[in-house]
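Q: I'm writing up a methods section and want to include an example of the input and output format. Could you take the sequence below and give the corresponding predicted structure tokens, formatted cleanly so I can copy it straight into the document?
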Amino acid sequence: MTSDLISAFDQLQLATPLLEALKDVGYENPSPIQAQTIPLLLAGRDVLGQAQTGTGKTAAFALPVLSNLDSSQKYPQALVLTPTRELAIQVAEAFQTYASHLKGFHVLPVYGGQDYSSQIRSLKRGVQVIVGTPGRVMDHMRRGTLKLEQLKTLVLDEADEMLRMGFIDDVEWILEQTPPERQIALFSATMPTEIKRIANAHLNKPEQVIIKAKKATTDLIRQRVWPVSGTHKLDALTRILEAESFDGMIVFVRTRIATTELAEKLSARGFAATALNGDMPQAQRERTIEKLKKGNLDILVATDVAARGLDVDRISHVVNYDIPYDTEAYIHRIGRTGRAGRKGDAILFVAPRERRLLNAIERATGSKIELMELPSTELINDKRIAQFKQSITDTLAAGELDMFSQLVEQYQLEHNVPAIEIAAALAHLAQGDSPLLLKHQPTPKTDKSWMESGSAQRQARSEKSKGNQRKNRDAGRSARKKAPPEKGLERFRIDVGHNDNVMPGNIVGAIANEAGL
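A: Here is the clean output for your methods example:
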């Protein structure tokens, strides 16, 4: 079966527990790299894949790896090497998601900056899949805490990035220590000479899969991104809903369960919201969409699959509450607005470890996504006061107040209370338990630093660190002369710290681990 004929995951001969997990997260149709790669890996072939981040390549290797492993055996059967710890965590989480119906499965991310002891304990308990950075994986192999004699599959994810970061020698050392019969899948956005050399040396007659990045036209859609930080996502979404002028909105989440949970929370906060997911009977789905069209409903909380083909004129905003794992899903999501010549708004929530997905989305759309600041407490309160006053104006204009006027007048005469106080009491009664105004609190400042590319951050930290070293070198020498160490002690200088995102606890932990304390 060719990839052109594959239109659903159930055509890929994946294990039943994996198909159940894919259904849970709303995945129905494989992306091009998944349709081409999964059959090859299931058949035991080596694969050389050229694809950008955001094309769905994690599922392309994770699903066949999970299909081929024996979860009753507790030794490492698959190893995935990644250039960064953020990507290692992300890939490990993807494995865990796809294996949610696979009994006895365990995946372990291993990377520097985390103490060895917890990783060693997990390795001793037994795991089937290791996802890690080359340096830490190599350390465990040399210590004897990670044994790969029975390894079935080795995946090199973002190989060109590992080359650029100087890890390629470590990668090649690891390759040389693994069984010669293991299967290898190498993925890289580009194919520099060194990556081709490694592929020729270590892969066995690999099948080549090349996925060209697609550009999308989003000229009519204003795209903004909010970096998830201290403020809870729900609170951030609430502020946006209160401050933005919108007609209809779709809020995208990853799972069917999340649609229901978030819709209920938004309804509890006074928004006309409901869920739209694959569990809904067709009749209920049609009624829900009709309510949105007629204005009886303002917000749909939906999964990708449930919103497919949805075309409602009043959808002015799309919020990506959960960032999609591939760029095609993002383009499909924001395409629910800005249709038929109308302008639209798309807002994306991105956590620091999801920065790579953001970069992939920007490449796919061919545009830099605008950074968004959360609305301030003052702005929200001004909006609420304006709405409160407008509701009074609208009620007065509607009339039919004679009976209530008589009741208020009676109460005023009976209790000798000014009319203004009665009006205030009635307003408080109408407001219920929910306060009209937010308590004053500083609006979280958007941390722009993590949105830079990883290389830019590393270069900036390196330059800053070098500058600090030069600045403090003489002072450091002077201090050492003035205060020599006590007899029997030695002094060591470590030129890392807060500028490198290294905390005191990291240094103490590293020393304790290396010294066996």
